[in-house]
Specification:
Length: 121
Amino acid sequence: MSIKPSTYIIVIKSNIFVYTELSKLVASLSSNILLSKQYLRSQAAYFNIITSKHFSDTLSPEWESITIQIKAKGPKFDKDGKLTANAIINTIDQMTSEECISLAMRVMSLYEKVRSEFENA
């Protein structure tokens, strides 16, 4: 009697934490896309709370790209060297409305992919 090895396909999906937190972020962003700049600014903490390690290997690079973009300008300091805005707020403040809308759309698109991982699991 021979035993044939079974083949298993393991699909790693994003963490439920990402799904929950991203859904909260997207809920505010999608309420009025024209106010993306204000919503991104008010929800800036999510970009520090949600880390790429909570995403599936497939989606992790996309979140990393988003967070790199939203921190691109770095923190803002006054003339005395005192921090006046963290990297996220400083970057958002320097983004155009169009850039904010584009970034919000990227976040919403990523959320849909995360949601799909859970629905199709």
